[in-house]
From TrEMBL:
Species annotation: Actinacidiphila rubida
Coiled coil ranges: none
Pfam short name (any one): S-methyl_trans
Keywords of the record: Metal-binding, Methyltransferase, Transferase, Zinc
Residue ranges of domain Hcy-binding in the record: 5-298
Gene3D superfamilies for this protein: Homocysteine-binding-like domain
An individual GO BP term: S-methylmethionine cycle
Cofactor(s) this protein cannot do without: Zn(2+)
NCBIfam families per the UniProt record, alphabetical: PRK09485.1
Name the UniProt record assigns to this protein: Homocysteine S-methyltransferase
Cofactor note text: Binds 1 zinc ion per subunit.
Amino acid sequence: MSTLAPLGQVLASGTTLVLDGGLSNQLADQGCDLSDALWSARLLADAPGQIEAAHAAYVRAGAQVLITASYQATYEGFAHRGTDRAEAARLLRSSVELARRAAAGGTDVRVAASVGPYGAMLADGSEYRGRYGRSVRELAAFHRPRIETLAEAAPDALALETVPDADEAEAMLRAAEGTGVPVWLSYTVDGERTRAGQPLAEAFAVAAGRPEVVAVGVNCCAPADVDAAVELAAAATGKPVVAYPNSGERWDPDARAWTGGTSLDPARAVSWRASGARLIGGCCRVGPPVIAALAQALHT
C-alpha cells in the first residue's frame, strides 16, 4: 500500500510526473523472449525477476510512475495457456507487487496497474482497430474481473491504456467504477481521431464528470499526434492530461520489425506540459535513456 499523496491530488496541484517507457523493449534488451500471445505478461509466471529489473531500470532513469506488466494479462489469456483462475489472479496481483518493489528503489515513485483493451487479449492487432463486434455491456463484463483483481493489489492508479474505441472506453470506465482506485484513460489515436475513427473531442468527453478519472489523454501513438490531443483532452474534460507516445518508429507486420527513425524529441514534453499534460512518458520503443532525457527536460 502506497503512503504517498493520492495521485489525483498531486496532478490537480499542477505537478507533472514522469512516466516510464516501453516495458517490452526494455525486457527485450534484457534478453527476454516475448514471442508469446501473452507478450510481457508471460514473464509474470516465467521470469518475474526480469520484470522487476525492467521497472528498476526506469526508476534509475527518473520515472516517477511505473506501469505494470499486466497490459496483456487477462483471465482468458492465462486460461489459454492452462493457468487456472486462482493462479491467474495471483499473477495479476504480482504485477503490482513487482512494480512496487522496484519503486522502493526510488523516491516517491507510484505504481499504475495497466489495463489493456479487449483486442490485446486477442493478440491479433485488433487493439489498434477497435470495433470488435462486442457491446459496451459485454466489454464491461470482460474487463471487470481483472480490474477488480488489480485493484485488490492497491496500485496508485489503474491505467486504462491503448484504448482504440470510445465505446470500449465507456465499458472500461464502467468496469472500474466502485473499485476505489483512481484511473486514467488513454487512447491510441491516428491524428485527431481514435483508431476506430471517432473524433477525439467526443472520445475524451466520456471521461468528463467522472471523479475517479484523474487524467485523460493518449499513448501508443506517433509523437506528432500528441500536441493536438493534449489540447483536445484538456478542453473536453477540464482534467489533467496524460501523454506517452511511441518513439516514432513504425512496426512492419510482414517483416516483423520496427522501421524508420525516432521522432520523439524530449524537449517537446515542455510544450505538452504547458498545454495541460501532467503525466508524461513513453510507450513502444521508448527506453530508459529517453525517459532520462524527458525527466531532465521537465525538471530543469
